[in-house]
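Researcher: I'd like a candidate sequence for this fold, 288 residues long. If you have to choose between options at a position, lean toward the conservative one.
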């Protein structure tokens, strides 16, 4: 296996530009794919050619049977898969760095001109990237591309290699170079260990797809929540402009859309008192 340090260093920079779910996906990629593939794949598939044996003395029969059983090395296929799946994330990283650098230069020019009121759109006060605007579109696009690539490589694995179970031996009938009628019986080394490894890589690929789907839902929910808050804030601003608070009008009712309640008329209280006085006077007249 080659050196994954350069790719790992690039993907490590993406964590500062990703969500929480994106960081989990990055950990899955590092720990369960790159690390396991680099540490264990050579031990499992290192002898796939040298230990492949066919009981035939025909020249080229063993190589032909091996190419028929394994059209492509599993390890090389997984290396391609990791490289292609990581490419959309690296493209997003490049675009995010470009946007942030461009915004930083614009803010420096505004500060030089004396305009210190405007705040950055894509970064907060702590320098953390805010996924919004064009960055939101780029982030969602790379998530969709990763899902498509993961599913495509999973389907391609079944199309190229067939069953995920590695048999311990098989009957090869390729002729030529093998014998025309009898063929050859070929034996595969470590079939059970290879089958477990294939299962493991497929499960990790499925987890990667699931994490990408969860991250899309997470971003969409945050976007809808943010838009809902903006709409409510705009409604409050419009209501406050149309119905400014007036201390003379008394309290404001929240049950009537923020409209001020009119004060209780004074005649209602005084009228009640005058009616009582009028009733008392009539009673006194009758008594006299």
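Model: Candidate sequence:
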């Amino acid at each position: 296996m080659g050196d994954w340090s350069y790719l790992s260093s690039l993907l490590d920079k993406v964590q500062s530009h990703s969500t929480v779910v994106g960081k989990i996906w990055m950990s899955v990629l590092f720990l369960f794919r790159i690390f396991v593939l680099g540490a264990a794949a050579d031990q499992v598939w290192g002898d796939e050619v040298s230990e492949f044996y066919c009981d035939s003395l025909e020249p080229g029969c063993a190589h032909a049977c091996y190419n028929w059983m394994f059209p492509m090395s599993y390890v090389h296929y997984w290396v391609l898969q990791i490289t292609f799946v990581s490419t959309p994330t690296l493209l997003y990283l490049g675009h995010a760095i470009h946007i942030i650098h461009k915004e930083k230069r614009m803010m420096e020019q505004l500060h030089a001109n004396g305009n210190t009121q405007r705040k950055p759109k894509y970064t907060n006060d702590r320098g953390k990237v805010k996924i919004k605007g064009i960055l939101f579109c780029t982030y969602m696009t790379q998530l969709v591309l990763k899902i498509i690539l993961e599913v495509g490589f999973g389907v391609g694995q079944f199309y190229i290699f067939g069953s995920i179970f590695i048999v311990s031996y098989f009957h090869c009938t390729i002729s030529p170079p093998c014998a025309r009628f009898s063929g050859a019986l070929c034996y595969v080394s470590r079939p059970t260990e290879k089958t477990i490894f294939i299962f493991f890589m497929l499960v990790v690929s499925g987890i990667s797809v699931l994490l990408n789907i969860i991250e899309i839902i997470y971003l969409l929910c945050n976007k809808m929540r943010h838009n809902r808050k903006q709409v409510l804030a705009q409604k409050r601003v419009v209501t406050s402009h149309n119905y400014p608070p007036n201390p003379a009008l008394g309290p404001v009712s929240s049950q009537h859309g923020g409209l001020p309640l009119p004060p209780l008329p004074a005649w209602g209280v005084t009228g009640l008192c005058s009616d009582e006085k009028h009733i008392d006077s009539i009673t006194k007249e009758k008594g006299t």
